[in-house]
Amino acid sequence: MADRHSSALSGGCIRARVREVLAVAELSELEALAAEGLLPAAVPGGRVVAGVEGVLLGAHLLEELDFGVVPVESAMRPVLAAFAARVAGLDSGNGERWLDRLEEVLERGRFEPVEVRGYLRQSRHEFGLYDQVRPFMQDPRLLSEVTEPGPAGRLAMDRPSGANAMWSGRMAEATAVPSGEALGWVLAWRAFGPSGMGALRTRGGRASKSCKAGPARSLLRWFPRGRNLFESLVLSIPPPASWPSRSGEDLAPWESDLLPDPLAPPAPCGVVSLLTGRFAHAVLLAPSGDGAETVGCRVAWGTSVDLPAAVDPYVIDRSAGGPIRADHRRAMWRDVDALLLKERAAGKVTARRPQVFDTAPDLPVEVRRALRVRVLGWDQDKQDKNSAWVVAETPPVLELMEERSPDGASAVAAAHRMAEEAGSLLYRSLARVWHELNPGRRSDDREGFVGPAVAAFMEQAETEFWRVVADPSGAAPQFRRLAREVFDEATLAVRSATVRGMATVQRARGPLAGVPGTGGRANGNRKVTV
Predict the structure, then answer these.
(1) Cα–Cα distance for residue pair 102/360, rounded to 1 Å
(2) How far apart are CA 13 and CA 2, in angstroms?
(3) What whole-number distance in Å separates Cα of residue 49 and Cα of residue 11?
(4) Which residue ranges of the chain lie beneath pLDDT 50?
(5) Model pLDDT for residues 504-521, shown as the tens digit of each residue
(6) Separation of alpha carbons 238 and 415, rounded Å
(7) What is the Cα–Cα distance from 122 to 369, expressed in whole angstroms?
(8) Where does residue 366 rank: exposed (0-12), middle (13-18), buried (19+ CB within 10 A)?
(9) Which residues, at least 6 apart from 451, have a Cβ–Cβ distance to it below 8 Å?
């Protein structure tokens, strides 16, 4: 059995919040799990650090995950959903039979302790982070295939490492990582690892440092958030129509007797392998003497070829350009209509809602009406540049899904289009002012004048958008008025300085005010994106 400090089952690798209000019976359960050490020191409304076993047994007593590190949370949620699928019996079946089982599980309101303990004990020896034979979610072959471990800072992706610039973490590269945090970073590497150079790994006659980008790198993921963590995990299990249908055993890494072949990575063949088995980087931790910390790690290529095709069930996919990517400058609300509509058309490109929400219209009404959406992403390029974490949460909006409320979904989509059109018009109008007053200067130079104003408009437009979501049949949205107000504020100094400036601003304001014949182009035929 793995040491408690370094066990994914019983160690403190998952951070969560306890629900504030518990019934008497629930409070007794919480106290029992705390006494058993599975939810240590857990109290209503408090925070708890636990392992997989405690989180599954107490999921109905917990409000939500509470990592504070977006890539770790985004990488952890699918893995916990795979555990949920196994213990709830939602890893097989199809169509109505699966939906019936989902409704039964939701009605029960918790994971059954017998099912949780029974499943986890089948593979308990493989849940140790530092197990010498099968370290959890790692590749033990790196011990012989990679010569020397890198520093702990290589594992914690927000720290400086080697020639990489510090991104957000300020701890030194060599500072050890507590074992309770190490698993989260292992999963983050598997999901978000960059393309480029890793450690030199030699396997099967191939010696290389070259790594491919992780399958979730730079993507924006949309996760269901229920009334408690139990609902969130169950609803994060994608429905059977989204599962790969290839032949073979649908196994998680901790269930398989075989390690994956990095020269020919296996394709997912079911929901569990889809959620846990796709990765481009291999990781192996180096523990301290007492197993309480990770003092180094080996990070190398986990595949020499492109991963077999599969659709991430948590992304908004597009007919061209791939899934929507995380962009810290683009607010989440601008894609909510793609969540509500079966497909959102924008020119020649259509966007499809995340597959995990395909069964949301069929959920029990009390579950559906309370269901929020948690949006997580990491603004990155394919290599080693990281800009910002993206995290947001919607109010309960899924009652407006097209299948439940066609008119409501259409109203939300129309509001989004109106906001985008007003934002683009504001951009063009401000750009026109800048170009007329700065002839001959590069287009890039105008962003300091145009960018902050457009950002301010989008921030104000969000409030107006959520007003439409709250009452789709209410008053028409006032995006054009907001754009005029932002334009007037942004150009105040210009129009007050000279007669020429006043005339230029007046001409550029015409389209925002609906004055015919005042269009004009900001910069030839340049496409405007806001």
Answers:
(1) 11
(2) 14
(3) 8
(4) 1-2, 161-167, 520-528
(5) 999 999 899 886 655 544
(6) 29
(7) 37
(8) exposed
(9) none
